[in-house]
Amino acid sequence: MSGNLLITDVRLANGQQVDISIAGSRIEAIGPDLKREPGTTEEHGAGALVLPGFVEGHTHLDKTMWGMPWYRNAVGPKLTDRIENERRWRATSGHDAGAQSLALARAFLHVGTTRIRTHVDVDTDAGLRHLEGVLATREMLKGVMDLQVVAFPQSGLLKREGTAALLDRALAEGADVLGALDPASIDGDPVASLDTTFAIASRHRKPIDIHLHEPGETGARTMSLLLDRVEALDMQGQVVISHAFCLGELPEQARDALLERLARLRVALLTTAPPSVPVPPLKACVAAGVTIFAGNDGIRDAWTPYGSPDMLERAMFVGMRYDLRRDDALELAFDTVSGAAARGCGFADYGLTVGARADLVLLDAETVAHAVAARPPRKCVISHGRIVARNGAGVAQ
After folding, report:
1. How many folded domains does the chain comprise?
2. What is the pTM of this model?
3. Which parts of the sequence belong to the Amidohydrolase domain (predicted)?
4. Do residue 145 and residue 119 come from a single domain?
5. Which residues, at least 6 apart from 120, have a Cβ–Cβ distance to it below 8 Å?
6. Which CATH number does the domain housing residue 106 bear?
7. 167 and 257 housed in the same domain
8. Which of 2, 171, 174, 229 is close enough to 204 for a disulfide, judged by CB 3.0 to 4.6 Å?
């Protein structure tokens, strides 16, 4: 459906009962008893809670086996084991990044996610094949979902000759963000790795999103080198550090010094809130003014059997990992998959405000905290001002 839409009888997070008027793809008005104009379609909310469309801040759509037969995982314990196993499997199985990314992106959309940042493997074995598949998905879903595509060197940047040139091509051919991976522990030379990464990003005027799994002091040194380059190259607000496990291991004084620099340089953090490794301290980050948001990482792939396209579930995992129990604390967990994620990824025109893009989710919950804890079915999903799903199933456009 297209045109104007009036959503009646819904509740905002503060409990206020309102109607929401949508003109084209934008929220035109929010308030009680809005007048229905001729030619406007009406959607009765029946007292549902209305939330902004969810944001997936870090996933790997190109890797997923969503909807495929079960993959028997027998990979070794090291990061390099997982990288090499996945590269072999994808090369020999004929895994189709285009078809699989489309299947998972639609699953995200049907339960309320309207914006996704996805990392896509670029390496000297596959070249840009995976990227081309995800770019096709981005084009197919244009108008109902925003996909930010990160060109990601999963096998490292310096270890495999030709990777830098492939990343250069990936950005020229449509990738939105430049990825990077563990400059010290994978590439073995954090200075050269970061210099190459920032040079490519600067040449294309693209932001950076780096996977930083490096622990403790090693991770802290890499992070400090990265922040030096952000400052020197005036790239404030253009860099995300994903995972940042080191921030969960450092002494408080060293940690807080890095948080101060992160906030000053507007470098955001991404966490998947994993249960088994250190994580950046959520409340300390927020108190320091650092944007921290959440994502799934891989979903049902050669790395992990876990994951789900339901971002309320991810918000629940954030709440569990950080021991968030009060209602206001669970609202913070929801912010990691909504407002904070939109800020961290640079998604514009986001939120439940007049003038924002009309990406909305209606569900039966009393409060935001209730929605995170119970994860009720999505009665209706609206993206770009159009109803795109009901009760978890897509609606024909």
Report:
1. 2
2. 0.96
3. 47-389
4. yes
5. 60, 61, 62, 97, 130, 131, 134, 149, 150, 151, 152, 175
6. 3.20.20.140
7. yes
8. 171
